[in-house]
Recover the amino acids of this structure.
């Protein structure tokens, strides 16, 4: 088989994902855990790591766009779209936040946990992938959400805006807006001495943020341009040859589609190899650190919680056009207002679910 530019791009993304998986496992980078630490223990360490990753990603995008290295005007998903589907972002984010809490982790954490030996997360991945597939590749989304989303979507272009990026909305440009937002976030994050002295949280925030930038650079830069030209003239066009970076819920739906058509290798895309890379990286670190442990459900209710959570993750993640990495880091790096709304809704959904779980536990005690 000929080694093409398509294989080169996918192999590069796989390598970046392996590093992300290993670092996420080593540092216990977990967005659901970050919210839990904050809500239940008033510990903001992992939340600050999450925010630092977003800030680093913003700075990276500012650099590559200002330097003319890449343009994020057209991406998958369409983060900066002038079609501002505010209800989609909020409802999808809330559903995903509730789901990831019930399922013990977001999309990225599910993959990391699989690499560490957690069989519960395999079940979560399977169910979430089926639900994401239904949302992406069948009429389910149109029938369940299409009319509602369409009726509440605001056309920003009709008001003279060229995108929903904060810099474009404010009229100051995304370079200025990106530097200001990232600077404020970094200042907040580093204001905590406890955070500044925690090597794992610093490592997670910096490395994961840079890896998201790496995804943009690979697919949106010179290599990405060559990749798109190759796909345009390929006999069988590969799936999702677009400017993009790391996001995992759509990848789950695409993965389910490939599993149903394994002979069609053109369906193997950025998202699928990224998912595999996260699992492999996490597995390698688990073996190296002797942290590999087989885990299974402790009860029927434990299974039902994870299964229901996976359904909400798959549906909510596609509805919101991304997960805690795909919207709250990758999407936020584009300064898309919708990504920021989704980020807030995910945190709100997760926090409310944790509060309810605590209330119920105290009531039953």
């Amino acid at each position: 088989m000929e080694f093409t530019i398509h294989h080169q791009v996918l192999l590069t993304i796989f390598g970046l994902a392996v590093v992300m998986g290993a670092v996420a496992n080593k540092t216990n980078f977990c967005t659901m855990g970050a919210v839990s630490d904050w809500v239940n223990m008033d510990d903001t360490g992992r939340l600050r790591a999450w925010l630092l990753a977003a800030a680093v990603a913003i700075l990276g995008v500012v650099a590559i766009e200002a330097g003319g290295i890449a343009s994020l005007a057209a991406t998958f998903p369409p983060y900066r779209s002038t079609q501002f589907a505010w209800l989609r972002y909020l409802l999808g984010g809330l559903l995903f936040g509730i789901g990831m809490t019930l399922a013990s982790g977001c999309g990225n954490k599910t993959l990391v946990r699989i690499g560490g030996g957690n069989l519960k997360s395999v079940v979560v991945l399977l169910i979430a992938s089926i639900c994401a597939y239904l949302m992406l590749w069948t009429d389910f989304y149109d029938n369940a959400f299409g009319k509602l989303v369409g009726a509440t979507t605001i056309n920003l272009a009709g008001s003279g805006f060229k995108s929903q990026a904060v810099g474009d909305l404010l009229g100051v440009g995304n370079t200025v807006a990106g530097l200001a937002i990232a600077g404020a976030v970094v200042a907040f994050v580093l204001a905590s001495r406890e955070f500044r002295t925690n090597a794992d949280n610093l490592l997670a925030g910096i490395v994961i943020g840079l890896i998201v930038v790496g995804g943009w650079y690979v697919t949106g830069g010179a290599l990405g341009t060559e990749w798109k030209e190759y796909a345009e003239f390929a006999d069988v066009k590969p799936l999702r040859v677009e400017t993009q970076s790391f996001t995992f819920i759509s990848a789950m739906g695409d993965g389910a589609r490939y599993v149903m058509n394994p002979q069609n290798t053109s369906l193997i895309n950025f998202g699928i190899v990224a998912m595999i890379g996260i699992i492999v990286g996490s597995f390698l670190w688990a073996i190296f650190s002797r942290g590999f442990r087989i885990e299974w459900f402790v009860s029927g209710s434990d299974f039902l919680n994870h299964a229901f959570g996976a359904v909400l993750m798959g549906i909510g993640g596609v509805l919101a056009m991304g997960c805690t990495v795909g919207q709250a880091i990758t999407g936020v790096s584009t300064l898309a207002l919708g990504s920021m709304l989704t980020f807030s809704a995910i945190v709100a959904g997760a926090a409310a679910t944790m509060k309810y779980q605590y209330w119920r536990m105290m009531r039953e005690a």
